């Protein structure tokens, strides 16, 4: 269908007739218009009149109802081509804004969406506004879905924007939409600034914020007590905390990644230092257990059972990024060494309970030297001995000294007399 300007004079005649009838509070039906303009002095063809009426509808200047229901233009073809329906199709004038209001609406569209209106009708302007608002609304729903997955800024602004735009999208016609936009112009212009921040954040800076969230709640969380002892690291952590707590941190986002890189460097250095310190103590434990296993001539299954916990502990220490875990494994290594000695001791005891082998007579000229029996390793804890002689856990008098030394000497003598070796902790 061609534009209205193809026959502007005829279009104005039809529009004026409809306006006059409505101003006199008279109902206007399609039949009235056809009767009016098929007669003299007009004498227009029916199809031309139907086309003019349809053009006015497309321009958003009139609307149609049939019975009690609205008749959309896309469903009007069949009724328009049925003579019997002419008396049922009622025509209503759509309110129109004046030129000044339309200019204000055009400027608002330019300010909000950076779009220039190139149409020439109120309906086209409303369609442009609707399209732009729908795009904003869809973007906000996408931002909101991301915001609900964790701690992200702008949630309140997103919710306010969704409410503001939903109310505009609910307007029933072009006139109401433009009118409401003009009424809400200040709120829309304020929100346009917020939308620009939200759009940049959720489409360009979202990964940066996820890096921040991971840094504070995962990457450096376990080691934070150790990092806070370093002045540079503490300053970086405090700054990241400040940014993380801001409701609108958009102008601070550029600082996040450099601060994380700074923390990562310090964190790795602290981990390396603690790991090296711990490994220098764990490795000798493994070597001592290996020596005991060799001395006891333990079979492979006993060796594996004794060494495996210590070796796995060493592996965890060499791969762990958590200083508390390294400290914990360091403490566990001492327990694993004790358990290894206990395992070896049980093996040695099992040998002692077996019937000794019959001696083999040496051949003439040969001197047989008996192999020494393997010794158990007995661990004596100084703290346990102290607790037995002093419930308070302190040595305060010379009597306490004598009691402690006597208890220690007694334990040592008992172990040595049993053919064992003593390890003091």
Structural account:
The radius of gyration is 46 Å and the shape is rod-shaped. A hairpin with a 2-residue loop joins strand 2 and strand 3 (69-70). The strands form 2 sheets. It has a 4-stranded antiparallel sheet with strand order 1-4-2-3. The protein contains 16 helices and 6 strands. By secondary structure, it is mainly α. 66% of the residues lie in helices and 5% in strands. Helix 5 (99-113) crosses helix 8 and helix 6 packs antiparallel against helix 7. It starts with 7 loop residues before the first helix and ends with a strand.
Features:
disordered N terminus; four-stranded antiparallel beta sheet; 16 helices; 425 residues; mainly alpha
Brief overview, please?
Helix content is 66%, strand content 5%.
């Amino acid at each position: 269908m061609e534009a209205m300007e193809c026959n502007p004079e005829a279009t104005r005649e039809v529009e004026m007739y409809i306006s006059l009838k409505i101003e006199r509070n008279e109902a206007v039906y399609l039949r009235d218009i056809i009767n009016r303009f098929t007669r003299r002095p007009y004498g227009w063809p029916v199809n031309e009149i139907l086309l003019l009426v349809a053009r006015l509808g497309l321009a958003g200047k009139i609307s149609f109802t049939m019975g009690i229901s609205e008749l959309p233009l896309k469903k009007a073809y069949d009724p328009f081509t049925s003579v019997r329906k002419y008396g049922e199709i009622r025509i209503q004038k759509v309110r129109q804004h004046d030129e000044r209001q339309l200019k204000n609406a055009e400027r608002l569209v330019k300010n909000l969406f950076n779009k220039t209106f190139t149409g020439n009708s109120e309906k086209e302007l409303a369609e442009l506004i609707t399209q732009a608002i729908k795009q904003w609304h869809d973007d906000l729903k996408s931002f909101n879905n991301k915001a609900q997955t964790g701690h992200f800024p702008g949630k309140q602004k997103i919710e306010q924007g969704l409410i503001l735009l939903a109310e505009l999208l609910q307007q029933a016609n072009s006139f109401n939409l433009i009118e409401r936009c003009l009424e809400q112009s200040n709120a829309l212009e304020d929100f346009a600034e917020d939308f620009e921040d939200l759009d940049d954040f959720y489409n360009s800076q979202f990964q940066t914020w996820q890096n921040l969230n991971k840094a504070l709640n995962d990457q450096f969380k376990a080691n934070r007590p150790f990092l806070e002892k370093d002045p540079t690291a503490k300053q970086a952590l405090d700054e990241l905390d400040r940014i993380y707590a801001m409701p609108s941190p958009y102008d601070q986002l550029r600082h996040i990644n450099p601060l994380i890189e700074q923390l990562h460097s310090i964190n790795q250095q602290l981990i390396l230092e603690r790991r090296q310190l711990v490994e220098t103590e764990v490795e000798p434990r493994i070597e001592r257990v290996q020596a005991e296993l060799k001395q006891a001539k333990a079979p492979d299954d006993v060796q594996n059972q004794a060494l495996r916990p210590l070796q796995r502990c060493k592996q965890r220490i060499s791969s762990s990024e958590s200083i508390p875990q390294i400290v914990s494994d360091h403490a566990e290594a001492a327990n694993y060494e004790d358990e290894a000695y206990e395992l070896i001791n049980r093996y040695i005891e099992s040998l002692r309970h077996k019937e000794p082998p019959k001696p083999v007579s040496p051949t003439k000229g040969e001197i047989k030297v008996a192999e020494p029996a393997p010794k158990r390793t007995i661990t004596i804890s100084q703290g346990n001995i102290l607790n037995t002689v002093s419930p308070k856990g302190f040595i305060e008098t010379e009597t306490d000294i004598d009691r402690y030394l006597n208890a220690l000497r007694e334990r040592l003598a008992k172990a040595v007399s049993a053919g064992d070796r003593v390890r003091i902790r």
